Amino acid sequence: MTTGENPSTAGWEPGIVAFLCNWCSYAGADSAGVGRHQYPSSVRIIRVPCAGRISPFFIISAFLEGADGVLVSGCHPGDCHYTSGNLIARRRFILLKSLLEHAGVEEGRLWFTWVSASEGGRFAAVVDTVTKRVRALGPASCLRRRFI
Amino acid sequence: MEASAIVRTVRERAAELLASGRVDLVIGFEQGSMPMRAAPCFVSDADGTDRLVWNSFCGVNLARFLRGRHGRIAVVAKACDTRALVELIKENQLCRTDMVVIGVPCAGMVDSAAVEEITGHAGITGVEEADGRLLLTAGGSPVSLPREDVLCRSCRRCSTRNPVICDIAVGERAPEPEIPGFLDVDQFAALPSEERRTRIEAEMKRCIRCNACRNVCPMCYCVRCFADDAFPQWVGRGGDPGSVMSFHLVRALHLAGRCVECGACERACPTGVDLGILNRRMSADVYRHFGYRPGMAPEIPSPLSTFSPGDPEDFMLEPDRGRSCGCGG
Amino acid sequence: MTMKPAEPTGAVLVIGGGIGGIQASLDLANSGFRVYLLERLGAIGGAMAALDKTFPTNDCSMCILSPKLVECGRHLNIELLTNSELLALEGVPGAFIATVEQKPRYVDIEKCTGCGECAGVCPVRLPDAFNRGFSTRKAIYRLYEQAHPPAYQIDMNACRRCGLCARTCAAWAVDLSMEPVTHRLEVGAVVACPGFETFDAARIANYGYGLFPNVITGIEFERILSASGPTRGNLRRPSDGRMPRRIAWIQCVGSRDIHRVNNGYCSSVCCTSAIKEAVVAREHGCPDLEATVFHIDIRTHGKGFERYFDRARNEHGVRFARSEIHRVFQDASGDLILRYPEGGAVREEVFDLVVLSTGMVQSAANRELAARLGIELDEHGFCVTDTLSPVDTSVPGVFAAGAFTGPRDIPETVMGASAAASRAAELLSRARHSSTRSRKYPPEKPFGGSRPRIGVFVCRCGINIAGVVDVEAVRDHAAGLPNVVYAVDTLFACSQDSQRMIREAVSEHGLNRVVVAACTPRTHEPLFQETLREAGLNKHLFEMANIRDQCSWVHQAEPGNATAKAMDLVRMSAARARLMKPLAQTSVGVERSALVIGGGVAGMVSASALADQGFGVHLVESSGRLGGNALRLRSTLDGSDVASFVKGLSERVSNDPSIDLHLGAQVTDVAGFVGSFRSTVEEADGRRVEIVHGAAVIATGAEPHTPSGFLYGLDPGVLTLPQLEERISAGDPVAASCRNVVLIQCAGSREPGRPWCSRVCCSESLKLALEMLDRNPGIRIYILYRDIRTYGLREKYYLEARERGVRFLRYDPDDPPVIERGDREGGAGLRVTATDTVLGERFTIDADLVGLAVAVVPSGSSRRLAGLFKVPLDEDGFFMEAHAKLRPVDFPTDGVFVCGLAHGPKTIDESIVQAGAAAARASLVLCRDSIEAGGTVCVIDSAKCSGCGICALVCPFRAVEIDAEEHRAIVNEALCKGCGLCVASCRSGAADLGGFTDAEIHAMIGSFTSGNAGR
Amino acid sequence: MRRPPGRGITDLVERLLTVAEVYAPVERDQSVVFDRIESAREAAIDRGPAALSPKNLVFPRCEMLLSSSTRGDESGRAPDPGPGGPRVLFGVRPCDARAIALLDRILGGGEKTDSYYIRRRESLVVISIGCTESLETCFCETTGGGPRSTEGSDILLEDLGDRCEASIITEKGVWLAGQIGLEHDPAGARTPRGPAPPAGPAADLAELKKRLDRSFEDQCWRDIALKCIGCGVCTFLCPACHCFDVIDEETAGVRVRSRIWDSCQFPAFTEQASGYNPRPSAAERFRQRVMHKFSYCIERYGMPGCVGCGRCVSRCPVNLDIRTVTASFLGDGGEP
Description:
The structure holds four protein chains of four kinds. By secondary structure, chain A is an alpha/beta fold. Chain A has helices spanning 25-34, 56-64, 85-102, 120-137, and strands spanning 16-21, 43-48, 69-74, 110-114.
């Protein structure tokens, strides 16, 4: 994947919605702040109690409402505050990602990862990677609502 | 067993069940208002069982009609109907003890639109079946077609021809096909993303949101479908293509691990949307990742209600993967 | 029974802010006692905070610890005394006076917002002790990123008193004139969990620690692996920053060593720790990383550890070499050379990094503490406790837990801490709730039908936010949003002034929702929610936008983008706030009695602890007799008299009026939930009685495995260890007159069908061997083993046995010992043949008796009971706790607890500790009048529910059920933890989560874009 | 058997394209729908009846009524101003044209006219082609129409191969004919063209209405609707169905009010805010459809709400055939 900018979208910055579980990944984002890990300003974080709370609707809705990328992050396997929410969610995520990409949402728009409370650096690296990839893809159009 | 013999047996068994009071209702098929049509029918007394038929046009999934009815019900069911029954039992929608399954082996259903296409829309006025062929009267002249050539898309990739649950078996077991795999899915997936998108958008553009796919589906039984819900309105009801696509995406996700691939939705669609293009992706993933085939065993938990520690994780972002390694480049 | 003071003080002093102290504090504070938590350093967290992952689940240490830090830090009844030391303890149990000196922090904890501006300007840089010197910190610093309290502190030894920090701090929190403060605390009891230090590896000069940069200790390696550590989780070796490809672990550095250092004990955790480090290194490092562990024995005796070991070997490719390494050499490139015997020759191998698995030792500070408490220590400085009252110190009223009492891993520490909390609560039960504080709030204003009136408070956080984000612009953006009737910015939203401002704004502007745009809700939401409650608003009408951690701190160079993002976040929060509703809390009554199932030692200890704490107990034992497996034991390895202990305990349990004993009885049905279970007990006479109880403790024990093979059951000379012990205790003449006895270890454990270590057998074998030697000094005893696992302080008996001539012969599990009938004259002799892997020789022993150290296997009743209580079993069939590390006696299902052998193999003292812990945890339920339910819980719209049951299937807490008659899902609010897993699983939109509703999240998603046309 | 359109037709289309936007049946993804064409070659006159009726042109499936910004700026959009110039709907069957005549009476006439409909309808000229063949599903004659019905058409063509014959029916037709030099060919109307195709038995609609009105409370509806799955295929494909819902939607600060097709077969169609539904089951809903078409429409607009195009018959997923239902009411006993 190139990181070169599409000339028609030069200066354009993607809008990315991130759904983070409260106990690990949101805390990881906090750690990124505490550790002053700088990362692109593209991400808008929505806090949920657990990765298991993240319904496919959230992700599809984010694309519908104009997100250029979506990032989902929960606790590493075994760390789930609610025992197994992240693992049940993982099954949902596999299918959702596969389906969206099957339907033509470009690979590189939807990201799943695990970030723990102490991984501030990792969180910043995740946002960095995701932003680069989404930026290279340009604005998303596959699901974005356009009234006719 | 000849088709006519199957019909005779179905009628006899249904009549016995009703006459003996073992069931209050038999759900099966009757001859439709035109050739190449069979319609669901509901028979509640033994005299009415003569209406029952069985032919290559019984494509509707009758599992759809059992929910919400009182009393004991017998259902004339092909393999995919029984697979839907299994999932519905698992999901507390039906009680196994309240149903009698009259199981009929199935060699695939015929796609009447394909027949019309092949016969040049000449007007089919008669149809009979013998030896794996359809003997048609098209535009007044006899035409003979191999059934194999005009099977429904879903039937061509069918993996289960015999009822999974059955109380009364009618006919001889059909030979089970080799599981054909997911060649269609893989071929489609091999296309560039942009082309997949164009193809799927072309399908979705035809959708008129009439809800036939959803309403005919045995597994779509929500009291209120998300698509009709206004608060929150996840998916718009208007015409924006994103919402239409999202409706079908969410429906495919809701059917993941539950879709028995009966093809009823595709047959019902008035504009011929290839709904399998999404649902098959889910079937392939559920089978490959979780080893699950819907409707095959009542005791196996639904794949999205559980997890395995070894579930795939390679789809997830690992920002340090490769980066922190100083020796691999 | 504990002698109880008549009018005790309802407060407890907990010493040590590690995981043990934290657990004890939370257990006590949550069961009606006031707690003073004393910590020597500036923040709590202890050793666990420095770990990367925890074995055997590889959980992130910080992830599981930090919620506890926050809870401890915010608890109304826990007073944190950081930088503090105990000076003296006077008085009697129930009424101590503790004198504590708190050293100055030079930063006001109340004022400091943890922003770190001060450290930014501090000119003094020094090695960071928390990262073991691999990174630097400033003179004004925080112990680690997630430290609690989050306030900074000044290291006055390093400070140059330049005053830059004080001038920079916008919160005026730095105060260089602070003086030490002495507190006189009235407490009824003391729980000491001061932890351990790691052995100073430099004491063994041969390893080159301190000389060779690439020789590091395990804890240093943990810091290198840690994402928040000096290398941000990138595996690098210190000398040249290269990623190591070959890493060696050297075990037993400073442990099991009476020659180089006088530490004859085993540190118990290092083997599994090294395995964890090796596995994680292979995950973090390069794909072909070679990990080699040099060890004496591998001691993976904990629950699930043996599987962990197996996986490390078989799946992760970690190499285990049974060799003691005596010296490490360094070459010119900084690589390290190890020499060790292999197959009769000496092999030389080069490594990039050597990790020394240093043991646990007791510090001088802890010795000093013990002296001030007046408690007795052993030769190594560990606190002396009695095997059969394992958390009691030599001073009544002073209890101890964790590594202070001997090498312990995290769950052992947590259990010990809970058990110590239970002992303190038993002593002080009359004073429960007498010293605690509670808050009173005005009644909530009526809410029904009111239009949203949102107040937005934008925090400047000194310059932390305002230095980057244009706070005025954010405020003005907020003011223009729908339903926002009031928007204001404030210097520090968390200050007391601001709380008053919020309260006044609520009443003045009729606000019915409040949005604070500031820092993270994870730490600050409770504070603002409290303010809302004080203002008469439901606490769920509050929402936070995190414009510090997510904007100003991470986009420092892009003020424009940071401001735009802050506006988006505020807009999203306001969109959500518009839809927020008050969430009701309901109360569920609590029956103040417990059902304890199992009348063995664990069950009896748990029952008597609960009774001593003042609760009613129903003790159900399926056999006709109390005592369980302990009836077969006469004494412990250290000679404690088990028989009289069990006798005494049985009598005490039988005679206690608050314990209702059901012998020969069985639990046949369980209904209800935490606070009000209704269980049916079938009595010995077939009568069925219903028992209402608030909590349940499962202590149904385990069974010895009946071995197959080894001529067991075919030859009277082959016995299991319990049988052998009975024979010895009974003074059996054959046992008394034997010449040769062979004890075979791992007879049924650590093998395919039972891949766990049964933990007790090595010690039991030693106990019997020593006892037989006592009775018959001429006897020759052979112990055939795979690894000798006399972990912790038991190691000294292994030494003793070797000194007294017990022969230890190691066999290979692929070539197990063979027992045949011997042809010796004069009786039924046995012939044992095996290969000694140390010498590589095959040998034959003519034995009079063979003792088989048989596996401990789960009780046959476990599965049935697990079904009744809807609690899980692990893959081996033992009860599976809620969390292997931090909830070792809990289940995911509230109100049900486990202890003793039912949970996994363990020794009698460990069972007693766990039983105490289970009592402590159960008391948390029982001490309350009611359980608060509701709030952030799942709600079902039954009009939309079709009863498919996916919600009930996925719920980890069994909080959702399908009503059989209505055919709809119903949620038990008392059990629901609000994770929302069921909500996202529900296809019908029938389930929703209070506080995180679909509509709220949809509103946030819908307003995330700035709405620029053409975006 | 189908035959391709004669040269006369293609010539005509080419001429139409020079003066107006032309909408004609075209093949899109293997099915025939009405869409704008740029050349005569695109018109798929020979591919059988269109899967979807042409009503989308005057009554779109989704139509924006108004839009606004939620953020106080001017980022909202004005609704679609409608067609700029004349549009020709070419090649419809007489039944579909007849349906437009019904829509005109409902949405475009009387006291309550629908300005959105009228805006689209006024500029539309309808050119139908008389049917020379019928399908099993056709029953226009049962509903009072026929293969050469002129109702709703501005011009009715007869395809005579190398030429076509035109009956110019309305003023609009005259105008358009003038634009393209098409002459009224009254002689053609008398040219014998062989027997008219059979298209369902003629029925006594007055008698049907009478019997339906009598059967409102009859139990038979329950049995008839047993197999109905409550989808909207019949109503959405129907060229005459015209029920709609008005919805508000919002994204990225733009709020839009639109109307979308609705169906009396959907449970939510009559569900009230309280949750009460006066048509709680498929029986009441199916009855409504039949009553509306064969009783209420006749009563109010003087023609049935069904033109016998047969789309609902051929596409009903469960073969719930409205012909069978109406026939059963007209049977001997008067009730099925």
